[in-house]
Specification:
The chain has about 260 residues and is an all-alpha fold. The chain is built from ten helices and no strands.
């Protein structure tokens, strides 16, 4: 009973985390399911994806109501992300665990550095011209593909690539967060449909986890409007940018030493 209460508390907190920071709760879900409930990794990943789809979907809907979703860029990333998730899922379990953690950790750190360079003024070398439409589409496709591959491999850690890509494309903080959860909803669904073929879903854990996460996302939306963003009309938020950068950086470093 205590374990299930903890499961729902974590789900609730991760729902808030998802809507405020644009995702990234998948790795927490997988760790919780494997360590606390002894769920095999393959089933834990499928369960994580099954949980993330409704959470990301509700989060994307709430962000869309606040005009925080760039649908044009989001659909491009989602389409290529879906393809990437199929590729990542096909390689899941085939990479040795020691190499696997090192590879994912380095990719996440590299993507986080790109995001930091774009978001932190002190790291910006020059103000370059805005990229052409074709270049932006290619960049969105590349980051979407990377995000999808990571998602297929490890659940939903692919959000790091999506957030980094949106930052590189010059999206504001809130547009980055909103578009990220929109893309995550599509990637998590395609990843789930692929992963469920190789690992069943622990529905008894997925359902309460998903319900609590959705409730957390709804509360997180209110916190975002009333407390974090407040009355400012600006779509940029330095605190959220910093938390996203530090959070992803710590995740990458943790994987290197896992």
């Amino acid at each position: 009973m205590v374990k299930f209460i903890l499961l729902m508390v974590v789900g609730f907190l991760m729902g808030i985390f998802t809507i405020v920071l644009g995702g990234g709760a998948g790795a927490v879900y997988v760790s919780l399911l494997t360590l606390l409930f002894n769920v095999p990794p393959a089933i834990a990943t499928s369960t994580s994806l099954a949980t993330m789809f409704p959470t990301a979907g509700v989060s994307a809907f709430l962000h869309a109501k606040s005009n925080n979703v760039n649908f044009k860029t989001g659909w491009t990333m989602m389409g290529w992300g879906a393809i990437g998730s199929l590729i990542g899922s096909s390689f899941s379990g085939k990479i040795p665990e020691d190499h696997y953690n090192q590879l994912i950790g380095r990719v996440i750190i590299g993507l986080t550095v790109l995001m930091a360079v774009k978001k932190i003024p002190a790291l910006q070398i020059t103000n370059k011209k805005e990229a052409s439409r074709i270049k932006r589409v290619l960049q969105a496709s590349l980051f979407g593909m990377i995000g999808g591959i990571l998602s297929g491999l490890v659940g939903t850690s692919g959000t790091t690539a999506i957030i980094a890509g949106l930052a590189v494309l010059g999206c504001s903080t809130m547009q980055t967060v909103g578009t990220s959860v929109f893309v995550l909803s599509g990637i998590s669904l395609s990843g789930f449909l692929m992963r469920v073929q190789v690992g069943n879903v622990a529905w008894k854990l997925a359902i309460p986890l998903a319900v609590s996460a959705v409730l957390g996302a709804i509360l997180g939306s209110l916190l975002l409007k009333k407390v974090i963003v407040g009355k400012t009309a600006s779509k940029d938020n330095k605190r959220i940018d910093l938390i996203m950068i530090l959070g992803n950086l710590l995740m990458g470093i943790a994987l290197l030493f896992k």
